[in-house]
Amino acid sequence: MSAGRSATPLPDLGFSGPEFARLIADSPTLSARLRDLREATLADATDAPLGDITPRTAAALLCAVHRTLFQRIQELTLPGQDNAQISTTVIAEEDSAFGLLEPALADYAEA
User: Fold this and answer.
1) Using one digit for the tens of pLDDT, what is the confidence trace for 35-86?
2) Which of 8, 65, 81, 87 has the fewest CB atoms within 10 Å, i.e. is most exposed?
């Protein structure tokens, strides 16, 4: 997504608007459920045998970065930054954050 591409909320990327961001940020239950959904989706993607710790660990690492970026979007949304400003900031931070995982996960679950 390029900076400023959309002025409308994009919930799938975390661009939800201040009301929804506050709802998630203020609810430990909703925050935990969101984390569980992300981790389950990523862990299931490899069709690993039940109990295999590898996909769960990879999912946890990827979700940790995603959670961090989602929280960052919330931090920027709550004081009223617009989506274009948030996008510019988060895209720059995203490359750095996921780059930290590249040495460990670059070859994991390649198609």
Assistant:
1) 777 667 767 777 777 777 887 788 788 878 888 888 898 899 888 888 889 9
2) 8
Q: Which amino acid is at 50?
A: L
* Contact between 77 and 16 (Cβ < 8 Å): yes
Question: Residue for token digits 């510019």?
Answer: 88
Residue 15 — left, alpha, or beta (φ > 0 → left; ψ -120 to 50 → alpha)?
beta
CA dihedral over 78, 79, 84, 90, signed as positive or negative: negative
Three-class HEC string of 55-95: HHHHHHHHHHHHHHHHHHHHHHHCCCCCHHHHHHHHHHHHH
| pTM of structure | 0.61
- Which stretches of 11-52 are DSSP H helices? 18-25, 28-44
Evaluate whether 31 touches 24 at the Cβ level (below 8 Å). Answer: yes
* Amino acid sitting at position 53: I
